[in-house]
Amino acid sequence: MREAYKQEEPEWITTKPIIEDHWNACLQMLEGHSDGVMSVTFSHDSKLLASASYDKTVRIWNAGTGSLQQTLEGHDSAVMSVTFSHDSKLLASASDKTVRIWDAGTGFLQQTLEGHGSAVMSVTFSHDSKLLASASDKTVRIWDAGTGFLQQTLEGHGSAVMSVTFSHDSKLLTSASLDKTVRIWDVGTGFLQQTLEGHSIGVMSVTFSHDSKLLASASDDKTVRIWDVGTGFLQQTLEGHSIGVMSVTFSHDSKLLASASYDKTVRTWDVGIGFLQQTLEGHSDEVMSVAFSHDSKLLASASYDKTVRIWDVGTGFLQQTLEGHSDGVMSVAFSHDSKLLASASYDETVRIWDVSTSFCHQIVTVNTVITSLSFDSIDSNLLTNVGSCKVYRTELSTTSEYSQEGGSDGDRQRLSISGPWVTWNKQNLLWLPPDYRATMFDISPLGSIVAGGCESGKVFIIGFSPVILYNSLGQL
């Protein structure tokens, strides 16, 4: 039957399944898991897909053809998390009390990392893909990703570790805990360089400056503290917020620091002397995130009041109030040329704005809450925790054609999954049979492949041509 209707196949479907003996409406089905799929993720080069399941296995699929490349077995309980290294050569899986590192190309188990005393819920690679950090209970462990050698067991925190982050040069790791302390560790030796004490309540967030010389910590005690990474010396205690501080970020030249608070304000500080430069007021609800433009001239703030505000860093003047989100805004990010701003909201959309005019050029519906947001190095794609989407910069010359309330339909060329449908620009595009309704899904970093994990234990991959979809269906 499929052969009879072969000429009716839409030209915008690029990844197709092997034709089965019996007709099935699913275009691509990845079968093999015997229990629910917990997580699916693409490699950074978009060539592979990994799925983690309650059946205790990880499976690696060819994202282009849908063929099963490897079945990774060995975990004793459900696999909760999988992540690829940034060079896409390794895969790490977290389950039970272990982390396993696999060769993504061959499926060979390189290392079984044991030592945690309770379940490992999360793993992360360093920026150079050489190291792996895993967090569990009150400890952090650093592993050599190539050999599986445990470099360090970082112990000392008296309560749960809330945040861990590598420095930009991958030489240091910092951990923030509810025990009110921040610890700085030498990644190579595991040596505890500094225990930073002074906060009176648990530390919620830590961040390195871009030159990796300074560290800022934000706490529910209403303060931000700036520390010298090399010496552990407390350089500044920044006071002024009336409620706990949620987020801190350094400017890209490492000269300024911005803090966002539950008190509805943003404050900018001179890092060198701790001087309060500006108190930015105007939000009507908690401020959740702040981001500097790459030229350090502008600051964006995201709030539960459903708006994003853009401020002049030097004067504190409010340049733009960006409205359109229907729920609180969680995250903001500038493009590298500082001309675009992306915002992610609880309304499950990402919006891309022109910084100078405040016009919204694109709306991307993601059907989930975005927790991380950034532009790639050439500002052509917006990277999120559920995949990436193309930024149509050619449309910036026609800003008058788009409204601030969300732009035209032709501006939203994005794939997604909504209930039983694969959608394009919020329009139903491809119906999914009941057995293939995704409980979670991922969009490849190139924005052209949809992968879904189903409660039935099946995984499907469908490839599309965004160019053909845009040309033929973009005006739906």
Whole-number radius of gyration?
A: 23 Å
* Overall helicity: under 10%
Distance between the termini: 29 Å
Structural class: mainly beta
* Nearest-integer average pLDDT: 77
Strand content: over 45%
The number of helices is 1
Strand order of the largest sheet: 1-42-41-40
Shape: globular
* Poorly predicted sequence stretches spanning 5 or more consecutive residues: 17-29, 394-413
| Total E-strand runs | 42
Biggest sheet character: 4 strands, antiparallel
Features:
476 residues; mainly beta; 4-stranded antiparallel beta sheet; 1 helix; 2% helix; 47% strand; globular
Secondary structure elements and pairings:
Elements (H helix, E strand, L loop, with lengths): L12 E3 L21 E6 L5 E6 L4 E5 L5 E5 L6 E6 L5 E6 L2 E6 L5 E6 L7 E4 L5 E6 L2 E6 L5 E5 L6 E6 L5 E6 L4 E5 L5 E5 L6 E6 L5 E6 L4 E5 L5 E5 L6 E6 L5 E6 L4 E5 L5 E5 L6 E6 L5 E6 L4 E5 L5 E5 L6 E6 L5 E6 L3 E6 L5 E6 L7 E3 L5 E4 L2 E4 L24 E4 L2 E4 L2 E5 L6 E6 L5 E6 L4 E6 L1 H8 L3
Antiparallel strand pairs: 1-42, 2-3, 3-4, 4-5, 6-7, 7-8, 8-9, 10-11, 11-12, 12-13, 14-15, 15-16, 16-17, 18-19, 19-20, 20-21, 22-23, 23-24, 24-25, 26-27, 27-28, 28-29, 30-31, 31-32, 32-33, 34-35, 35-36, 37-38, 38-39, 40-41, 41-42
